[in-house]
Specification:
Length: 296
């Protein structure tokens, strides 16, 4: 019998209270005394859930400090927009300055700031370049949004977040990959393992995305250590909200990103290996509805 993976679920619209609660429900602390690299979703400066909400970033940084992280670096690569423009437009540069954490713009990395990763049996022609600050980090923490993706990936959560760790030069291959896109997204995730993932689903795009789309409130936060499990629970929430045909019309573990990630052994292989943990009655009741859809 396979060991279960825990995904915490907090039903709330209060990030300042809900984010620490979601993380603490996991009952783990692998960041104490460690240098943490924090990867948000700053592909564009579009309003949440088009990009990570600044309140989410702040609450997560403050809780990482409370957990005893030795230092924190926030980093990302936007695209096609210039990363420095996105960080400035969102006020992330000022937020990081005020919270006394480092900020890494991957666009500004020198040539040796990228390392080629070429996994065996991948759908990439000749591998892809990953930002060295991610590869060298003592701990990587990621925070993603809950949304559909209207340009071939179907959805964008924790697995898709890893695309922002890859050099822009590799994006033309990914964006022209057609039916292989989901597989290639999953393959990027072989380059690193997160300490944990926080998914902000207070609002979601249930159609179109990833910059703008049909917006619905879910008022939910998820945390976990398993990217497949996080994305599977996120997909169940999209189904609960009522999403588009590519989401509603396919079983969760048959989605291309999920199926390829399972093949690669990146996490759970099915819904029976996921246990949703909650800390209050409202969250427990919501989790019951999510579990029903996760099993379909």
């Amino acid at each position: 019998m396979k060991r279960k993976t825990f995904v915490s679920l907090v039903k709330t619209s209060d990030r300042a209270l809900g984010i620490p609660a979601a993380i603490d429900l996991l009952a783990l602390n692998s960041v104490q005394g460690k240098a943490v690299f924090l990867k948000p979703n700053f592909n564009t400066a579009d309003a949440f859930p088009g990009s990570t909400h600044n309140d989410t970033l702040k609450a997560l940084i403050l809780h990482l400090k409370q957990m005893g992280s030795r230092e924190i670096t926030v980093g990302d690569r936007s695209g096609p927009a210039d990363t420095s423009d996105v960080l400035r437009e969102k006020g992330v540069d000022l937020l990081c300055r005020d919270l006394k954490v480092k900020l890494q713009n991957f666009d500004a990395l020198p040539p040796d700031g990228w390392k080629k990763v070429n996994p065996a049996n991948a759908h990439w022609r000749n591998g892809f370049a990953v930002a060295v600050p991610v590869l060298d980090a003592e701990r990587v923490v990621t925070t993603c949004c809950l949304k559909t993706h209207g340009y071939g990936a179907v959805f964008t959560m924790s697995l898709k977040l890893s695309v922002g760790m890859v050099n822009k030069r590799n994006m033309s291959e990914l964006h022209s990959s057609g039916l292989a896109m989901g597989k290639m997204i999953a393959e990027i995730n072989q380059a690193y393992t997160p300490a944990f993932i926080l998914l902000d689903g207070i609002e979601a795009f249930t159609d179109r995305g990833p910059m703008t789309g049909t917006r619905k409130r879910a008022d939910v936060l998820l945390a976990g250590t398993d990217r497949i499990a996080i994305d599977a629970v996120g997909l169940a929430i999209l189904k609960l909200l009522g999403s588009n045909n590519p989401i509603m019309g396919k079983p969760i573990f048959e989605q291309e990103q999920i199926a390829r990630a399972v093949e690669l052994g990146l996490g759970v292989s099915g819904p029976d290996e996921i246990e949703i943990v909650t800390g209050d009655e409202r969250s427990r009741q919501y989790a019951e509805e999510v579990i029903k859809l996760l099993q379909e």
